């Protein structure tokens, strides 16, 4: 079934190296999904395994009162001379790290999950392990979203943990994100007679000045502070070097606290750009409340020990919270190093994450 | 020598139609230059003809005290379903017009010149007729510039008339033009943590606001009013929908009165964008003073009758004034219709231009 044999018995640190070295850029997850499926078939008879495309879902069916879903994505962003991974010392902290593509985002998290999936045949709660494809590309390709649509019955749970890098602490919920195309119109004219036209690029200046002066809110949601952001991420306009431009387009990205729903976020954008000719929402994803008031979440926070913080980037926890399942991010690795060419994960953080998760699931 | 026979004996209106219907988009002037050279060889034994690429120079050598150079370009901008030309009524004024590509810019002017070149074998001044290639494309290809470099001795003159469309009135001199690339730098960051970056597009906002508020000067030069303009003609910036952009580039076009030299114009741009990270001048062409105090110019103004006005767009008169030769624009056609898909020239204006020029040259 798989040409590549994974060996979780060597522990999650070694398994991180094994997983990273299976090339698995988005769209090419077949080999790694095959390898995960094979190791479960061989070593985890206590799990019922389902395959959906390159997503692997493995469930205990122990009849426990509560069920926890634990998910991680198998793909990485493109490699940039940073595979195979190697052992190094962190240039800033001196810690022992595994260096290379995927170490942070998120093969170390997947390794911890896979070690525990094989090991824990009698956990305190029923478990649904999910390893999925296409997380690093556009939302409509996302393997977790696809599997949720295809097999919703497999995803029922009381709590969910996404193994996205969070420095081994709990990062609750996530900000929402919305992108809009904002256009300013003008009237073309020869630039030798500019007063006969209306310069659309000049018209956009006021909006950029407002963005520059804008102080994004810090919003407390369920005790965690979410910092927002409203930014122009692209701008374009112009016809030729001697023509007054009749169109200027600004692409805006709004990151908003999970206390706002999509309609409220859109309202903020439309009000901010009330002077524009058109405002078109081109991408939207709701935030997720941290959900830390759920009993299982509180127990998990206690087990991990460190105080939880807000997740600022959008993650797939929002797909769980959209189903009414409280969900948090919990994985080894510094999220600021995700996608970086010098991506690297501290070995001690992989081990600590594994310990915390094992202790809680066995309690 | 030429497959296409021009017949100037039918008059400048008919010759306009003949010239327009010889396809002559910039770079493809061979056929029309051949036709002009052939008609001069056949019908203008009083002219000494020189060919430089697709530029034709034809001179009287009568030993007159003064010499006037009269020039027009043979090329057009690309055709857009507007050839062959046809006779129509102007939709706005009801006048009889010739409609189609090249009628305004500037086959009607060339036709008037060619009729008079063949006819005037005993003018009051010596004449240098110049029909040249590559006016509608980048300045380094310009046939007038090339011929001036190759055969400067042919261009000595006391006064020059460029047949660019000017509604049959004298448009004196021209504004200068300068383009600059102005860049604002920033620092990339993930848009989920925008405060860790510096948004270059936001930084450009203040400059656009200043441009928007800017009141360009009106400058009197030798009695004519030149209206300036400072405009963003292009803008671009941005990396991806989730990245704070680290660079925003504005292309600016400054049209400045001929009382300013290139260094002064550059100074205006650099002062205006003092907050930018880089300002690179990418294109520059000096203006031309109207030179209406020259005796020949004053006689020409009297002969035409209508009061002269300032030429706002940049034209090749600047190449003559750069040689110290006073030069004006004088040709049939509304310059606002040049390059337009509904380019059209009033027949009465072609005839009036021909009359005024003939009367003056015969006086």
TrEMBL record, chains A, B:
NCBIfam families: dapE-gram_pos
Record organism: Leucobacter iarius
Domain (Peptidase M20 dimerisation) ranges: 176-275
Membrane keyword on record: no
Keywords annotated in UniProt: Hydrolase, Metal-binding, Zinc
Protein name: Succinyl-diaminopimelate desuccinylase
Catalytic EC class: hydrolase
EC number: 3.5.1.18
